[in-house]
Amino acid sequence: MLNSNFSGFLLEAGTDEAGRGCLAGPVVAAAVILPKDFSHPLLNDSKQLSEKNRQLLKPIIEEKAIAYAVSFVFQDEVDKINVLQASITGMHRAIEALEVTPEFIIVDGDKFRNYKEIPHKTIVKGDAKYLSIAAASVLAKTYRDEYMKKIHQEFCEYNWQKNKGYPTKEHRDAIRKFGATLHHRKSFKLLPEQFKLEI
Asked: Does residue 165 form part of some domain?
């Protein structure tokens, strides 16, 4: 059973991101403030849910949330500021876009920068402990998956509709065969053999 609140504040925002470990596409972050009495039997860390259940939860979260927002940090910016900073920047932008200012922020993971004067707490595996972080993880993942399916239409050789830009064998084989696209993160090691010197 996930906890509904950490801080005791009514307007507590949970925030999380998706796509940190991908070779292509954006890092997507979400922030969600849920009402005190919100509960849903399916809601859990998005990684533990089927795609079908994530899609089912998305409109429920959007309808029931006091406020929610999603932000995209695209690959060029990820390359510029590094993926950890991209994750934190994305979370900040999602919080900034909320229609209601949170009184407290709970963050999935152990890294965050202060956001304005609002107190926060980082929680390792927070998406499996708190409803608002789990809800943010579902929104971040579903919005990112939708985007990857969209760009798949143009670059179907990489099968992003299935692997979503993660470093699967199939994705790496396609990079080997067709090269990197404008959606690939240039700062990432796209292929394991990339840094082997030819002597």
From this structure: no
What is the per-residue burial (b if ≥16 Cβ within 10 Å, else e) of 18-36?
A: bbeebbbbbbbbbbbbbee
Q: Is the pTM of this model over 0.85?
A: yes
> Which CATH number goes with the domain that contains 65?
3.30.420.10
Burial tier of 159 (Cβ tally within 10 Å: 0-12, 13-18, 19+): middle
Backbone angles phi, psi at 40, to 5 degrees: -150, 130
Number of domain units in the chain? 1
Blockwise average pLDDT, block size 10, the chain, 199 residues: 95 98 98 96 91 97 98 98 97 98 98 98 97 98 98 97 96 96 94 60
Q: Is residue 6 part of a domain?
A: no
Contact between 146 and 160 under an 8 Å Cβ cutoff? The reply is: no
- Asked whether residue 142 is assigned to any structural domain, the reply reads yes
Burial label, 55 (beta-carbon count in 10 A; 0-12, 13-18, 19+): middle
Structure tokens given for 188 = 């990432």
Domain residues for the domain of 82 are 12-152
Query: Three-state SS for 197?
Result: coil
pLDDT on residue 104: 98
Closest CA to 135 of 45, 23, 24, 25: 45
Query: What residues contact 63, with CB distance under 8 A and at least 6 apart?
Result: none
* Strand ranges (E), 66-162: 67-73, 104-108, 120-123
> Per the domain annotation, does 56 fall within a domain?
yes
